[in-house]
Amino acid sequence: MTELSTAPGLSTAPGAPAPPVSRAPGGIPTEVFRKQLAEFSAARGELLAADRWESQDPPVRELLGAAGAAGLFRAAWAVDEADRPRALWHAVELHTAFARLGNGAPGAPLLTHLDVATRLLATLPAAPAGLVERALDGRTTAALAVTEPGGAGSDLASLTTAVRRDKDTLTVTGEKWFISNAPYADHLLVLADDPEAVTGSRTGPALLLLEATAPGVARETLDTSGHTGLTGRIRLDAAPVHTVLAPGGHGLLRLMRHWIHERVMVAVRMTELASAVVDHAAEAAHHRRTFGSALIANQQVRFRLADLSAQVLETRAAVHHGIRLLAEGGCPMAYAAVCKYRAAELLRTAADEALQLSGADGYRTGHPAQRALRDGLGLALAGGTDELMLLQIDRG
Ligand SMILES: Cc1cc2nc3c(=O)[nH]c(=O)nc-3n(C[C@H](O)[C@H](O)[C@H](O)COP(=O)(O)OP(=O)(O)OC[C@H]3O[C@@H](n4cnc5c(N)ncnc54)[C@H](O)[C@@H]3O)c2cc1C
Predict the structure, then answer these.
(1) What does the similarity note say (predicted)?
(2) Is residue 3 part of a domain?
(3) How many CB atoms lie within 10 A of CB 42?
């Protein structure tokens, strides 16, 4: 009988030939980067151990520092326009590799770091000089604070956090929550309403840079079912604005462009998390015995795993098309939404079924499917919910 994990072509692990890349000056070829990632993880078993990422105080700064020092962020960084395809595929490699480390948990702060502390900040001309460079080296990090406890996550026109002028100083007052990397950030990018046009000539949401340790800024780690220890609540009480990154009326526009990129990258991460749990489930089904034979001996089990493998391959193909569109500089917002929506659906299904296949063992904290299910539910909300993705797809 053909066993799933040994059948040619059925493993969902990527490992396929690297997509074509341009090799701009300073860029390293994809194969070299893959090797670098493998060496990085092999040397940091303790840092990447799954149980450390189940605590309320996971080693986020240690990981970012180590990854920066090893050059992993710079390897996924485009030095110029022509270098963008190579950098994007390296980011895919990075998220793919980290989906299989520490039950996928350490991949979350890395994604936020790459997308917010380096990529988003670099698109904002007003950002202080040197900030992106330091983040690329893993010496500083930043968080993007948009969502509010009152429910401004989907409806960003109803922000209650606001910026005001107090003599010569701009200050922000309000509250944000579920902010990825907030407990570990040096800088906060805060979306705040500007009802009096104090940041420019228009009213509406402005994007502001705040020092995370400034007076009036209080942060605490949230107690959540997934993304354990990785998101935070921020209270702002007349906290001073360091820099206006985008003035009133322009903040959202900047973020809409940012979210196209981030949603495709989150879709990469979700697809690879799904791939990892399906492969783990297939492997475990060889060892688990019921009614005198290996679980994998049941055709129903093999068909289920084969169907999940097919879904992973289909979603990966769709998401990689999103990366190609980003590389060409023109991924439509609706397509990024398709990627995120489909990958979220895949991750939930794969994690749910992988957990069921593992029996009670799968229900244990520390089991890859259980962690993926908890994180998958959060990823279906983060950066825009499934329903918001459907709204964007509907609009076209
Ligand atoms: C793990 C994780 C990480 C996160 N990281 C960040 C971060 O770094 N920065 C940040 O700012 N936020 C972050 N968030 C918050 C996330 O972006 C929001 O939770 C999300 O945008 C939804 O906003 P909300 O929670 O306010 O829900 P609401 O906007 O109140 O929505 C509640 C429900 O109503 C649905 N809904 C809303 N409008 C409609 C509609 N018109 N039609 C149909 N259904 C609708 C929503 O889909 C949702 O199911 C994170 C969340 C999680 C779980």
Answers:
(1) Belongs to the acyl-CoA dehydrogenase family.
(2) no
(3) 9
Minimal-distance CA residue to ligand 1 atom 2: 382
Counting the structural domains of the chain, the total is 3
- Residue where a domain terminates, one of 249, 274, 304: 249
Domain boundaries, position 321: 253-395
pLDDT tens, 29-54?
889 999 999 999 999 999 999 999 99
Could you report the per-residue pLDDT of 109-123, keeping only the tens digit for each? 999 999 999 999 999
Distance from residue 153's CA to the centre of ligand 1 (Å) = 4
The DSSP secondary-structure symbol of 361 reads G
Residue 104 φ/ψ region, left for φ over 0, alpha for ψ in the -120 to 50 degree band, beta for the rest = left
Predicted confidence (pLDDT) per residue in 329-347, tens digit: 889 999 999 999 999 999 9
1 within some domain: no
Of all protein residues, the one whose alpha carbon is nearest to atom 16 of ligand 1 is: 382
Q: Report the run of H or E that residue 323 belongs to, with start and end.
A: helix 299-328
- Residues with CB under 6 Å of ligand 1 are 144-147, 151-155, 178-180, 227, 231, 378, 381-385, 387-388
CATH of the domain at 241: 2.40.110.10
